[in-house]
């Protein structure tokens, strides 16, 4: 006998994510799920963002990593609350990991950055209760990434193209990059920034100010 | 890489639904996967064979229906499936825009059997 289901396979995770979202809403946290490859510059971008925004609003950071707490330590040195989650080999954060982690974390009204495990594929599939997904991709990774990893670009509110100071040295076709993202998600904002020189950060910071609750 | 989590979830859901229906076993799980998800069928099958052992889904066959990602040309309106690394219209060459299809990841249904019912 056939039982018709038509049920999302990640339904259990999605429901936990919905619960997380309620917790974040109640605390006044605007949550940004930062997704990008290892080495794309997610942590550096968060550190730069802290420097630029910490006088404007509370910033908190949850760092997802397969192992180690190097990133959370570096961020804590900036004087903001940072929490490390080690996924013990898992390639992405899921809603349950976030739920467990925030139990012991005092959420404050403001921006909460959740840095996902370095990976453009798996984190795209798992909601964690965020308000926005942001894809972080660096110039050296190449302009073809929206075509190769369409799901994450189709779901992101913004794409931050990092290491823009390397543009003169790399054959990065900005038009192709932009066109690929626009085909997948015409509402997506694109910011080209350099965390090293500070170039282009203004647009990103203004966008964050606009989405902050 | 995330196929283990996906497979675990689809196994749990199927077993729960089958038990709710009072079934003795699951013969088939029908899965629908959108092309944009990047889920590998071989990988799901590999994990399923391991983690379904000693459950009522142990002998279940997995069937996969693949939904291509569809784009509509911004210029001529032609609707087309994604070609590798290209979102441009095959008719006029202009960029297309992603329309609905391609992000699916769900169980369409399960085929179950009851005690004394070998044929299902």
Short key terms for the protein model shown above:
heterodimer, A: 213 residues, alpha/beta, Rossmann fold, 7-stranded parallel sheet, 8 helices, B: 120 residues, alpha+beta, hypothetical protein PF0899 fold, 3-stranded mixed sheet, 3-stranded antiparallel sheet, 2 helices, elongated
In short:
The complex is a heterodimer of chains A (213) and B (120). Chain A has 213 residues and is of the alpha/beta class.
Q: In words, what does this structure look like?
A:
The complex is a heterodimer of chains A (213) and B (120). By secondary structure, chain A is α/β, with parallel strands linked by helices. Chain A has helices at 11-27, 42-53, 70-76, 95-103, 145-148, 150-155, 174-184, 201-211, and strands at residues 2-8, 29-36, 58-65, 81-86, 110-115, 132-138, 158-162, 189-192. In chain A, strands 4-3-5-2-6-7-8 form a seven-stranded parallel β-sheet, sandwiched between helices. The longest helix of chain A is centred in the N-terminal third of the chain and has 17 residues, at 11-27. By secondary structure, chain B is of the alpha+beta class. Chain B has a domain at 3-67 and 101-113: hypothetical protein PF0899 fold (2-Layer Sandwich). Helix content of chain B is 24%, strand content 31%. Chain B has two helices and six strands; from the N terminus they run αβαβββββ. Chain B has helices spanning 3-20, 41-51, and strands at residues 25-34, 61-67, 70-73, 79-81, 96-99, 105-113. Chain B has a three-stranded mixed β-sheet, with helices on one face. Chain B has a three-stranded antiparallel β-sheet with strand order 4-3-5, with no helix packed on it. Chain B is elongated, with a radius of gyration of 18 Å. Strand 1 of chain A pairs antiparallel with strand 6 (105-113) of chain B.
Mean pLDDT over all positions of chain B: 93
CATH topology of the domain at 3-67 and 101-113 in chain B, anyone?
A: hypothetical protein PF0899 fold
- Individual helix count of chain B: 2
Rg from alpha-carbon coordinates of chain B: 18 Å
Strand order of the largest sheet of chain B: 2-1-6
What level of helicity do the residues of chain A show?
A: 25-40%
Tertiary shape of chain A: globular
The total count of strands of chain B amounts to 6
């Amino acid at each position: 006998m056939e039982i018709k289901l038509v049920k999302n396979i990640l339904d259990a995770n999605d429901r936990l994510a919905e619960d997380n979202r309620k917790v974040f809403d109640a605390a006044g946290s605007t949550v940004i799920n930062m997704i990008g490859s290892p080495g794309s510059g997610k942590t550096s971008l968060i550190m730069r963002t802290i420097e630029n925004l910490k006088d404007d609003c509370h910033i908190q950071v949850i760092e997802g990593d397969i192992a180690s707490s190097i990133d959370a330590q570096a961020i804590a040195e900036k004087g903001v609350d940072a929490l490390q989650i080690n996924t013990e080999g898992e390639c992405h954060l899921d809603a349950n990991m976030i739920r467990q982690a925030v139990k012991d974390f005092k959420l404050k009204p403001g921006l909460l950055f959740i840095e996902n495990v370095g990976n453009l594929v798996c984190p795209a599939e798992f909601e964690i209760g965020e308000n926005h997904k942001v894809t972080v991709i660096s110039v050296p990774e190449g302009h073809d990434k929206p075509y190769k990893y369409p799901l994450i670009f189709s779901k992101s509110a913004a794409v931050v193209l990092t290491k823009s100071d390397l543009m003169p040295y790399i054959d990065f076709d900005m038009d192709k990059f932009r066109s690929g993202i626009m085909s997948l998600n015409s509402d997506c904002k694109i910011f080209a920034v350099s965390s090293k020189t500070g170039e282009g950060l203004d647009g990103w910071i203004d966008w964050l100010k606009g989405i902050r609750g | 890489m995330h196929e283990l989590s996906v497979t675990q979830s689809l196994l749990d859901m199927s077993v729960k639904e089958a038990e709710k229906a009072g079934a003795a076993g699951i013969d088939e799980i029908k899965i629908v996967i959108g092309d944009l998800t990047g889920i590998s069928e071989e990988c799901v099958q590999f994990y399923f064979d391991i983690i379904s052992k000693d459950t009522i889904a142990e002998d279940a066959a997995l069937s996969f229906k693949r939904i291509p990602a569809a784009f509509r040309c911004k210029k001529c309106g032609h609707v087309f499936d994604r070609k590798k690394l290209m979102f441009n219209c095959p008719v006029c060459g202009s960029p297309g825009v992603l329309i609905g299809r391609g992000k699916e990841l769900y169980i369409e249904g399960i085929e179950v059997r009851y005690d004394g019912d070998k044929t299902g």
